[in-house]
C-alpha cells in the first residue's frame, strides 16, 4: 500500500510541476522542481509518456553535453468538459490536458425551466463529446450562479436562474451515458477566479464578478477562501442599504438588488431577453448613464469597503461585466472605498480590471474538470488513449 | 550553523509541545508529540530544565515499569509583562512561563494626553517589575484599541483614545530601563482573541469584542487572519447605515457610531467618566433599555451578517462588554443575521458568549509577551534565573 500511495503521490507531483511550470521542462528541471531524484523522475516520466499524459518534444542542443528533451502535458489525449449555466445562455467547452480548446458550443436565451436548462446543457455535452469521440472523458464540471451543496450535486439556490434545490448532477446523469465521467457543480465565481489566480500567483485580493448576479471570491496568498460551506466571498448579498430594494433572493438592500443584470436591465428600460454585452453597450449610450454609473459605483464601493475592513486587503479585481465598465465606475468606487476602508489609511487601494478571457467561469469549469488527472494520474494511466510515444 | 539552527528548532518544538499539551507530560509523551527521538528529547529537556524553562514534578508510578516524570513549563523563573491601554484605564500584568499571574496593577480614569497615558503605563510596568525583581524580563506587549504600524512601534490611529500617530514604543522606552526587554504594541482585539482560540482549538469563528470601540478578529481553523496590514476583522468600521451618524473616526455610518462605549454613554445620558461595567448596569435598568438593545442588536446583526457573507462562517463569539449583555441582545442580533446571512440557509448561525476572563486583552498581551521564549528558547538558556534542578 505504502509504495502504491508513494508512486501515485510522485506521479502527481511530476505532472503538477509540469503544469505549474507553464513551459516545456526537462527531466532534470522536473527533478529540481519536485525534489525527487533524477532516476525516479525519469521512471515516472516514462510511465506518464506511455499513458499519453506527457509528451516529449524534439531534443534541444545547448552547446556541449547531452541535448535537453522538453516535456509538456500531452495534447489531444484526454477530454475534460466545462459547462456554464447562466441566466441568458448555456455554454460547453471541451479541453485537453494542455487546457487547449477542442470544442465549444453555446445556446443563447433563457430556459423556461431548470429541466429545460439541464436538457440543453446535456445536449451540448453530447455534442462536445462527439467532436472528440476517441478520447477518454475525465469528467464534467458545471459552473452555476448560485450556492451549491458541499458535495457538488445539488444547486441549493440560484436566484438569477430561479432555481431552488435543483438536483443538477442527477438531472445531467439521466441525459448522459456513464462514460461522461464524474459530474460536479461548482459556483461560477469560484471557478472564474481560477484564471485570475493564474495571472497573480501568490497574491491576495478581493475578486468581484458581475454576471447575472454579482459574486466574488476572497483570495489569500493564491488560495481561494472556502468558508464553512464553500460560500465565502458572496459579496452580492451583503447589505448596502438597510431596508432598501428587494433583491431576487427575497432579502432587502442586497448589493445585487442595485447592480445585478436584472437591476440594470430595469434601470436601462430594456426587455428581459437582452444579453449582458448589449446591456453594457446600452447603458454606456443611455442618457441616465451618469446616474447609473453613480448607483453602481456607490453601492459596489460600499460593499467592497465593508469586505476590505473585514479582510484587510488592498487589491480589488473587477471582472465579468464589471471589467468592460471598470474605467467608468472606478472613480466612484474608489471614492466610496477610500472614504470607508481603513486600509486606505495605509496607502491607496488598488482597483484593477481583470484581463481574463470573456468566459472565465466556463474556462475555470473546464480547468477544474481536468484536476482529477493532476491529482491522481495513476488512475488515468490505464485509460488514456495514446498508447505510447512521442507526440510533439 | 545548521546544527545551531536545528537545536533551536528542536528546543522550541519541545517547549511549544509542552505548552500546547496543557498538562504535565513525560519525556516519552514529548517525543511522541514532537516526533523527535526519545534520546534527543531527553537531551533537550535537560537543557531546558537547567535553564529554568521546564520543571520536573515528582515521579508517578503507574503499575509496572519505570515511573513517569511529569514535566511542565517552569513557574517563577521569567517575567513577561502585558499592558492594556484603554480609554478608561491602564492595566499591567506580569506572568511567568506558566501564564500564572505574578503581579497586577490598574489605574482608572481617562488620561489627559497620550504622554500622560504612556507615563502611567510605564509607571505600572516599573511597579510590576519591582514585584519580581530577580526574574529576567522577556519583554512588554501593549494592547491598544487601534491600528498599529506593522512593526508594532507606532499607534497610527486609536479614535477612542484620541490618538493619531503616537510613537508608543519610543515613549515607553524613554521611561523604562533597557532591561524591560523588547516592547511591542498590538491591537487589543487581536490579543483578546488568543484566549478564545485556546478554548476552541482549530475552530473557525468571527470574534466580536465591545470595549471602548467595537472590534473583532477573524479566526480560520485556529489562526487569526492577519490581512495586509494586520488589521483584518475591523468590524467596528463597517458601514451599517450609509450616510448615518458620524463616528469618532470621522466616517459616517460605522457600526461604532451606534454601539461603541461613547455612543452608549450618550444614549444612556451619562457623564464621560462612567466605567463600562457601570454603563452596562445603567443600560439594563434604563427605561429606554428595549430601544437601546434594539439599536445594538440590529446594527451589530447587520455588520455580522455582512461579515459572514464574505467569510462564510457559522459561529460568532461575542466578547468584551457584549458578553454580559449577550443574552439580551442575541435575539435581535440573531433575527438580523438570519435575515441576511446566506449561511443561515444551511443551518442556524451559532451566536455564543465568550467565557473568557474579564480582561482578555491584558491576558493576551502577557501571553504574547511570553512568545519569544517559546519561539527561541536558546536565547533564554543563558539568561534564566534558576540555575538548575527540580522546582516542583
Automatic annotation (TrEMBL), chains A, B:
It comes from the Bacteria. Pfam families: ROK. Belongs to the ROK (NagC/XylR) family. This is ROK family protein.
Amino acid at each position: 500500500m505504502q509504495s502504491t500511495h508513494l508512486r501515485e503521490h510522485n506521479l502527481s507531483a511530476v505532472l503538477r510541476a509540469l503544469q505549474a511550470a507553464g513551459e516545456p521542462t526537462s527531466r532534470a528541471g522536473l527533478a529540481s522542481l519536485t525534489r525527487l531524484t533524477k532516476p525516479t523522475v525519469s521512471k515516472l516520466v516514462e510511465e506518464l509518456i506511455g499513458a499519453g499524459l506527457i509528451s516529449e518534444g524534439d531534443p534541444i542542443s545547448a552547446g556541449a553535453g547531452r541535448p535537453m528533451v522538453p516535456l509538456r502535458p500531452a495534447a489531444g489525449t484526454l477530454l475534460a468538459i466545462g459547462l456554464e449555466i447562466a441566466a441568458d445562455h448555456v455554454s460547453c467547452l471541451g479541453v485537453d490536458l494542455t487546457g487547449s480548446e477542442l470544442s465549444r458550443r453555446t445556446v443563447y436565451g433563457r430556459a423556461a425551466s431548470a429541466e429545460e436548462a439541464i436538457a440543453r446543457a446535456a445536449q451540448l455535452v453530447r455534442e462536445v463529446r462527439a467532436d472528440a469521440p476517441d478520447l477518454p472523458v475525465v469528467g464534467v464540471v458545471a459552473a452555476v450562479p448560485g450556492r451549491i451543496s458541499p458535495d457538488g450535486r445539488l444547486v441549493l439556490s440560484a436566484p438569477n436562474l430561479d432555481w431552488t434545490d435543483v438536483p443538477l448532477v442527477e438531472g445531467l446523469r439521466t441525459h448522459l451515458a456513464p462514460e461522461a465521467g464524474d459530474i460536479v457543480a461548482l459556483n461560477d465565481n469560484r471557478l472564474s477566479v481560477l484564471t485570475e489566480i493564474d495571472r497573480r500567483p501568490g497574491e491576495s485580493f478581493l475578486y468581484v464578478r458581475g454576471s447575472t448576479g454579482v459574486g466574488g471570491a476572497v483570495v489569500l496568498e493564491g488560495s481561494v477562501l472556502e468558508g464553512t460551506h464553500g460560500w465565502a466571498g458572496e459579496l452580492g448579498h451583503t447589505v448596502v442599504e438597510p431596508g432598501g430594494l428587494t433583491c431576487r433572493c427575497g432579502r432587502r438592500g442586497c448589493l445585487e438588488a442595485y447592480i445585478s443584470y436584472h437591476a440594470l436591465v430595469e434601470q436601462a428600460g430594456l426587455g428581459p431577453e437582452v444579453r449582458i454585452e448589449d446591456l453594457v453597450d446600452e447603458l454606456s449610450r443611455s442618457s441616465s448613464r451618469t446616474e447609473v454609473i453613480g448607483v453602481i459605483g456607490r453601492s459596489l464601493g460600499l460593499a467592497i469597503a465593508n469586505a476590505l475592513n473585514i479582510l484587510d486587503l488592498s487589491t480589488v479585481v473587477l471582472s465579468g461585466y464589471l471589467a468592460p465598465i471598470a474605467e467608468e465606475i472606478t472613480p466612484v468606487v474608489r471614492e466610496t472605498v477610500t472614504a470607508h476602508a481603513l486600509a486606505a489609511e495605509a496607502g491607496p487601494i488598488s482597483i484593477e480590471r481583470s484581463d481574463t478571457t470573456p468566459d472565465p467561469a466556463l474556462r475555470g469549469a473546464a480547468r477544474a474538470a481536468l484536476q482529477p488527472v493532476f491529482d491522481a494520474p495513476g488512475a488515468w494511466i490505464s485509460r488514456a488513449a495514446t498508447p505510447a510515444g512521442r507526440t510533439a
